[in-house]
Amino acid sequence: MEKVFPDHLLPVYHRADVAFLYGEGPYLFAANGRRYLDFVAGIAVSSLGHNHPYLSGALKSQVDRLLHVSNLYRVPEQERLARRLCENSFAHSVYFCNSGAESIEGAIKMARRTHFGEGNESRNRIITMQQAFHGRTMGALAATGNPKYLEGFGPTPGGFDQVEANSVDAVAGAISARTAAVMFEPVLAEGGILPISGQVFGEIRKLCDRHDLLLIVDEVQTGICRTGRLFGHQWADARPDIMTLAKGLGGGVPIGAICVSERVAKHMIPGTHGSTFSGNPLAMSAGNAVLDVVLAPGFIAGVERVSKHLFARGSALIEEFPHLFKETRGRGLLFGLKCQVPNADLVAAAFDAGLLCHIAGDNVLRLLPPLIVTEDHVNEAFEILRSVASVYEIKAGEV
Ligand code: PLP
Fold first, then answer.
1. Predicted local distance difference test score (pLDDT) of residue 2
2. Atom of ligand 1 nearest to the CA of 247
3. Cα separation, 2 vs 303, whole angstroms
4. Three-class SS state of 23
5. Could you give the residue ranges of the DSSP H alpha helices within the chain?
6. How confident is the model at residue 1 (pLDDT cuts 50, 70, 90)?
7. Which of 82, 91, 318, 388 could form a disulfide with 349 if both were Cys (CB 3.0 to 4.6 A apart)?
8. Protein residue with least CA distance to atom 12, ligand 1
């Protein structure tokens, strides 16, 4: 896999030297004449795959009517999407934004503002988890706390206490009179596809109740059926106070959302937050069309069924190539294979063989297929991974 830095584009991305002309379901067709099976889905964005007739139709119809009006006026598509997100979650109200990082910034503001509104202005610190990823804006970076991403961008905004992931004791030990909230991803995705156990989730909820803290779940990657539930926290028997969404909600159109409980909502009075593009009709039509599809009877059960097959194929691959792979990780169609050889080598070889997959932290190979894939697509991906693994083993044996 060749890596390129095209002229006139800031060289912040290592790009594969391929350009896609169009897509169909889970396939992408490239200018080089090749077809690729897309198990990256634009990093968990293309939830309905490519060129989904229902989503495309809804967008075309919206484009022909109205793109943007601002929040100076009512936006019916926004009201509808907010209502549907609330009806299907713990939330009382929703604020729409344009990306994952922006939803995190808003969540941080809302948590602090809630305590301010309750007369506890000094409660402004947020406990986050090591190996987290919350985005690249300044507040989201500070919450992420990864020194590699922060290097050269100081001063870093303060107010975050990072603790060991998946540990109730670590969270309990970090709580002080200044703590406003605890924030984590239901599955630490970029950090290595590490699910937070239901038991830990529940215990953290209890800690939040005991200390009057807000629980923020970052569902930017896990939301909208990615884990086989509509929202990733629904695997645990625990309700958050704030939930961030982005990626899969728009099916490819930039969007973000912050879903909040009534306790939080009542402190976000006029003038406390805003953004020009917030909830514009085009993005809202995308969100509504995605929900039409994923909330249709049988869709979520289908994701769960395919997920079971995916994990079974993953386990079989590990059994066949124990020197290359160690364990399966994740939930639903947020799937990881812990590698014993460099994950990036396997991702590059899979690319050359026609399968798009991605890396995650902790040397994990990540599969994020569109939610519309079938068992046959999973079989196709695993046949490619088997051939990649065989070649890798043969080459390693020759060295
Ligand atoms: N939170 C999580 C869990 C993510 O996975 C990401 C991106 O990968 C973000 C936040 C940031 O989202 P965005 O890249 O849309 O700003």
1. 82
2. 15
3. 33
4. strand
5. 41-44, 53-63, 76-87, 100-117, 138-144, 147-150, 168-174, 198-211, 262-265, 281-294, 299-320, 343-352, 375-398
6. confident
7. 388
8. 100
- Kindly give the distance from the C-alpha atom of residue 135 to the centroid of ligand 1, in angstroms, as a whole number: 5
The answer, yes or no, to whether any atom of ligand 1 lies below 6 A from the CB of 218, is: yes
How many Å apart are CA 236 and CA 247, to the nearest integer? 22
Region 3-52+298-398: CATH code: 3.90.1150.10
Cα-to-centroid distance, 319 and ligand 1 (Å): 33
399 pLDDT exceeds 80? no
Mean pLDDT on 68-87: 98
CATH of domain 66-294: 3.40.640.10
pLDDT at 307 over 90: yes
Mutate to test the pocket of ligand 1, among 46, 99, 103, 134 (most ligand atoms within 8 A of CB): 134
Cβ of residue 185 lying under 6 Å from some atom of ligand 1: yes
Distance 139 CA to ligand 1 centre (A): 13
Pocket mutation for ligand 1, best pick of 247, 275, 358, 364 (most atoms within 8 Å of C-beta): 247
Copy the structure tokens of residue 155.
Answer: 């001063």
Q: How far is the CA of 64 from the centre of ligand 1 (A)?
A: 30
pLDDT in tens, 332-388: 999 999 999 999 999 999 999 999 999 999 999 999 999 999 999 999 999 999 999
Atom of ligand 1 nearest to the CA of 219: 3
To 5 degrees, how large is the angle CA 162–CA 367–CA 58?
100
CA distances from 100 to 43, 168, 206, 312 (A): 12, 26, 27, 31
Q: DSSP letter string over 48-76?
A: T-BS-HHHHHHHHHHHTT-S---TTS--H
